[in-house]
Structures are given as C-alpha cells and as structure tokens.
Amino acid sequence: MLHTMKHITALAALLLALSANLFAGTNEELFNQANDLYKSGNYPQSIELYNQILDAGYESATLYYNLGNAEFRNGSLGRAILNYERAYRLSPNDNDIVNNLEFARSKTTDNINEMPSFFLSEWANSIVGLFSVNGWAVTCIILMLIVCGVWAFFFIAKSYSAKKTSFFAALTLTVVLAVAFISLCASNNRANNHNEAIIMLPAVSVKTSPDYDAADKFLLHEGTKVEVEDAISEWTKIKLSDGNTGWTENSNLETI
C-alpha cells in the first residue's frame, strides 16, 4: 500500500509539474501575441490578451506595465494609471514603470496638493522602496546566512581581538538584518494593500454622505488616486492626498 501511495504521489507531482509547464507555456504564448498586437497598434486586442493572462491567475510587474502602456495608447487614462500602480508595487525600482506612471499622472485633470509628510516617514518609505518584496526576501536570506556565519566565528574564535571584531560585526549585521526584515514586511504590506484606488470615470461627484440626495462636496476626474477609508453598501468613503474626504459610488473607482 505504501509503494502504491508513493507512485500515486509521484504521478500527481509529475502531472502537476506538466500542467504548470503547460500553463506557463500558454501564458508566455499569449503574452508574446499581446506584445505583437501592441507593436502593430492593435491595442484593444492586446489588452484583451493581457487580461486573459491576469484572469488565469498570473501577474507580474512586466505584465501590468505592458497592459498599462496598451491602455494608455487606447485612451484609457484611468486604467493605464491603475496598471502602472500595480506594476510599481511589484517593482518599485523599475525606471520605466516610474517614468510612465509619472507621465500618466501628469495627464490627469485634478491637481491635488499633498499634505506634507514627516521626514522620517519619507526616509523609511525610500528605504522600503529600494527593493521589491522578492528583493527584500533574498536580501534577508543572504544577511541571515552571513550573520549566522559571523556569530559562529565569534564563538569559535580563540584570540581576544578576533572575538571583539567578530562580535561588533555580528551585532551590526544583526541590526541590518532586522531593518531588512522590517522593510520586507513593509514592502509586502504595501504590495498587498487594497486601501488605494483610482477614479475610473471621466468625472465623478463626491458627496458629503453615502446618499444620492446628499450635497456634492467636490468633483474628481479620471486617473486620480484616492485612499479608501470605509465602505457602506454601494458607497465608498475616500480620502484625497490633501486630506479632503467624501463618499462616491463603488463603480466610480477600482482598487489598486
């Protein structure tokens, strides 16, 4: 019975590997087709194929970036910014993504002044943005191996000078590892944060309360980024970077 189970497990693993390879191959083929359609100027069809890959459960910074480019060329500013933002979360150091996102943002109508942030917060955000989630994960693993090695050397070292040097080196590297781990957690939270959204319609009225009869508070336009604070039925409470808040219908925006 045990041998049978081993064979079944091995067969299941083989089938899983084959299906994964087939899945990857199909996505790669669709991705190449979408790229060719984009190059030929057929943006609607390239968008359709990129979305097919996303619907199949695969995502990457490159995929979102290419989809953002296609949406921008197709005249969908809101969807372009949405996908650039998603690409940026996965690869915050990619210059092409950063530049295209900034360029798309410059095309939006709303000019909202951001509230000044504390310099330590900006400093922390700049550190977290140095690497993607995967980048920080690899950094943590490498640092952990180095820290373990240096601490091991400290315990086996015979001379006082070697022990002293290795101790301070291990202590310093442990602190660096702690910072890297905190950055990994922050980067992961940022990548999985669904509290930000993009306005999708050309013009959206933001109301004082979640009610169709409520007074209009201000107007927002396609591509503007907002923070999601609350949701009631078909209404979402949003907050702008300048601190203003209000309510709008769920259909008017899409979370990043």
Top-tier CATH class of the largest domain: Mainly Alpha
Structural class: alpha+beta
Head-to-tail CA distance between termini: 50 Å
The CATH architecture classification of the largest domain is Alpha Horseshoe
CATH topology of the largest domain: Serine Threonine Protein Phosphatase 5, Tetratricopeptide repeat
Strand-residue proportion: 5-15%
What is the gyration radius calculated from CA atoms?
24 Å
Total strands: the figure is 7
Task: Work out the count of structural domains.
Answer: 3
Major sheet strand order: 6-5-4-1-7
Give the overall pLDDT as a whole number.
88
Describe the structure.
The protein has 256 residues and is of the alpha+beta class. The protein has helices spanning 2-39, 43-55, 61-73, 77-90, 95-106, 119-128, 133-156, 160-191, and strands at 196-199, 203-207, 216-221, 225-232, 235-239, 245-249, 253-255. The chain folds into three domains: 2-106, Alpha Horseshoe (Serine Threonine Protein Phosphatase 5, Tetratricopeptide repeat), CATH 1.25.40.10; 119-191; 196-255, SH3 type barrels (Roll). It is globular. The chain starts with a helix and ends with a strand.
Structure keywords:
256 residues; 3 domains; globular; alpha+beta; disordered N terminus; 5-stranded antiparallel β-sheet; 14% strand; 8 helices
